[in-house]
Known about the structure:
It is a single chain. By secondary structure, this protein is an alpha/beta fold. It has a single domain (about 1-195), classed as HUPs (Rossmann fold). It is about 45% helix and about 15% strand. The protein has six helices and six strands. The protein has helices spanning about 1-30, 65-75, 95-105, 125-135, 145-160, 175-195, and strands at about 35, 45-50, 85, 115-120, 140-145, 160-165. Helix 5 (about 145-160) links the parallel strand 5 and strand 6 (about 160-165). The chain is globular and about 65 Å long.
Amino acid sequence: xxxxxxxxxxxxxxxxxxxxxxxxxxxxxxQDQIYYNLNDVxxxxxxxxxxxxKRTVAGGTNKYFKERMEAAAGLYxxxxxxxxxxxxxxxxxYYNEPRDMLxxxxxxxxxxxxxxxxxxxxxTLDSVVRAKEVFGQTELMIITQDxxxxxxxxxxxxxxxxxxxxxxxxxxxxxxxxxxxxxLARGKAIVDLYVFNQEPKFLGxxxxx
Length: 209
């Protein structure tokens, strides 16, 4: 029993070291592509605005949603971007991230004609790959929070997109559970890309922007 516990302990430690190593790879290989200041970010014609829920589980305003919408609108009004793909989950008639993002951006003065809705952005990989394969983009600005930028850029780099990211926050402190979730998601992203060659759930017909 003691020997088994030691083996299990070693496996747990090695798994933890592997996951942290994969996280270091993702962060170190993408950190120079992330911008935090409107005055520094290089212009791109099209931005990919990654979706999240408008409301928290408790029903309050989701600060991540609010920050992303304000960041995208700010980039548009400054002329840094010309068009925005809003990509998110549309699992039911009552939960529609792209529609919520569209409405929020319109309230912030972004014209509807400058916004394209991607209803099949079920996860980050789907959103990034569909931006290339469905919407025909080879250059892209990704808009999300700092912690999410690294993984999104890593996926974009793997798929040979000329991408940068604009952080909707300034490396804010993450809640413990969200930080742990992102650490695991980064490891999974590498497995999806390099082991399973994962594709989006849906591709569909090409759309010109």
